[in-house]
Amino acid sequence: MVQRITRFLVIWAVLLVVSSAYGIDVSENVTVSGIIKNETASHLKMDEFMKIENTVQMGIEYRPTDYLHLFGLFRFFYDGVFDAEEQYEPVKSQLYRTDVTNDWLRELYVDLLSNRLDLRIGRQQVVWGTADGVKILDAVNATDMREFTLDDYADSRIPLWMLKLEYAPTLNGTAQFLFIPDFQANYIPPLGAPFTFGASKLGEQGVDYLQSLGVTVSRHEDVKPDPWKDLSDSTIGFRWLDVVGGFEYTLNFLYGFYLSGANYSWWEPPLTGPPIPGVNTLNLEKRYERIYLYGASFTKALAKGALSGLTLRGEFAYIQDVPTYYDGPLGVAVTKMDNFNYVLGFDKYLVTNWSTSLQFIQLITSEKDYQGYTLLFGPTLGQMDQVTTMLSLKVSTDLMHERLKPEVLIIYGFDNDWKISPRVQFEILNSLVAVAGVHIFEGKPENLYGQFDDRDELFFELRFGF
Amino acid sequence: MKLLKFLFLICGVLAFLTRIGVAIDKPYEGISTDELMKIKYYIKYTKFAQDYQSTGDVWLIGKGGFKRHRKFLRARIILNRESDGIDYKDMVVFTDPGSVKGLAILTWTYIDPKKEQDGWLWLPSLRKIRRISQSQADDSFLGSDFTTEEITIRRWEDETYEIIGEEKFKGYQCEFDGKTYYEGLDCYIVEAKPKRKDWYYSKRIVWVDKNTGASIFDEIYDPAGRKARTIFREYQEYPKGYLPQTLLECKNLRTGHRTAVTFDEIKFDSGLQEGFFTEKTLMRTKW
Prior knowledge:
The structure holds two protein chains of two kinds. Helix content of chain A is 10%, strand content 52%. Chain A is built from five helices and 26 strands. Chain A has helices at residues 2-22, 81-84, 92-95, 153-156, 198-212; strands at 30-43, 49-65, 68-79, 105-113, 117-124, 142-143, 157-158, 160-167, 174-180, 216-219, 235-244, 247-257, 262-268, 281-287, 290-301, 311-328, 331-349, 355-365, 369-370, 373-377, 382-383, 387-396, 404-413, 417-429, 432-442, 457-465. Chain B has one domain (31-284): Lipoprotein localisation LolA/LolB/LppX (outer membrane lipoprotein receptor (LolB), chain A), CATH 2.50.20.10. Chain B is mainly beta. In chain B, the strands form two sheets. A 13-stranded antiparallel beta sheet of chain B has the order 6-5-4-3-2-1-15-14-13-12-11-10-7. Chain B has a two-stranded antiparallel ribbon with strand order 8-9. Chains A and B meet through strand 1, strand 17 and strand 26 of A and strand 6 and helix 4 of B.
């Protein structure tokens, strides 16, 4: 441990020297920039650490001409919480540092630019939509959920190798084509992690119970698409973006995969009654299945009249063939249904520099049950409503000439499911920023935020940028 | 036929003049206050040119001397286009320090003074563009001592004006670089009052250069009539008589906080295309 901390401090010191020596422009065509940060979180009861993460992120951009750019972004982190807290020791090898999920290479691409056509080839992130705190259209890249949804999306988004082509046939209209011969699933934290999903706990409890009865449980390797071997496993995306008279809209299409996967189970031989030890084997297999996403979004800033200054935005996604759990006769099973998810947002400065952003969110499943069986909510395996409605409110302001920035994001699910995240950011020096805040979860264990009701955390971040 | 040729010639000359920008009006003896202030705004938003680019530095300086620094790139294209009502488009990209590096703002400003700007904000750390509402006009502009209205929104139509005197400017002692500017410059003194009621200021006293029409110094009075802030502007004359601002200093007389902005590497009419002022360009910013 001491060696690791020493190694980290040495790296930090070297980077500081390098950054101060070179500044931001190493030469006329090369720019180096980066972040060194510590994020520490403890349980709100202050009885355990939940994160002691040190991160070094460095980006290098090379612009030999105005039309050719090369960019690389590298990130390394070490989370000391798996050393500091005994209860997390069993999952340390799966979570404690960058190379566990192979995402140290955050971005590496070549840009070929022209007035009408931009081509970006390499490992990158593509973001669709603008919603706060929820992902409706932001479905191109997978998400690392080791910290549930508490991490910044840019940090938790898992980059992909792809080709992105943007063509502007009109002044404000741009067509974006994505060809993604790569696949990365959402990273779901294992049992015993600080933010293990309720569904993982329930699943493991079920397996433990069966094994205690002497029943064999066979876990199969995940069935994942592998576009490197079979190009037909690639993901394809398209977005049209245009601004007409101040009204901005997008039309989106994604032929991709359900990135959280679906856990299938079956008995061999099929059950004729209760499972018999030594005879029946339970097989478990995670599969990543194809989905079709048809989406749209809009934003309109009202420029005149009584509502002047109000920005309206909306984001809509119709997703076909989403794997959906239900409580079947032999336990949890999977079927496919269509989902329609949308968010409507209203943004406005209310008094001078008080920015407010209100969102109305609905997640709708095409059926209310499956052949009379209750639908289950994937992250918790609790009962799922056909329509899940949420509201979110974000209020932010700034003080001391934007040195001090308080903000609060509240997300409320109509099942009395809450997440409240107040935070305050303070610019200590030009390049040194401190952030402190809390995440408070409230609700029932079967709901999205309620499952972490006992995981309220207090966090602190110190970030040096160069 | 000759008449037709003559008309074509006139049209050609007009088109040429439009492309290279229009000559800047100058104040003249007996000029009305309204005309004078129109020239002031013409200069402020560089509407004499086709396009404008510069780099810039912002220093936010506390009473005790604690300094925060920002660097930015700025580009503007002046369209003054009747078909869609767009007056000009602006792009500002922050390049330093790391905490704001890559943050970019695109705004479209309309000819109609009652129509608010359209704005897009590129958040590089999130790889995301947000449509932004125009900030409240009385809000501080990006944490500076200027208000948003003073930097980007205020139009000639927003105030009433009266020339209240003519005198030689006594000179401005700039705290940022220690130099004294424009001592003895012949100026009109204009009183500008906001048309909005119960606004954050009751009036401005503006010193306008009699030779160029550029406003060099503002005293801003709060609603109670007390002098609250001052703004100083330095200009440098460029070829074709173009007159960009090269230094701004705004002081808050109550808190002692001040903001200095310098502009460098100023270029005009370099052939910027309107296609540059789109979301596609915003997303090219890496940081």
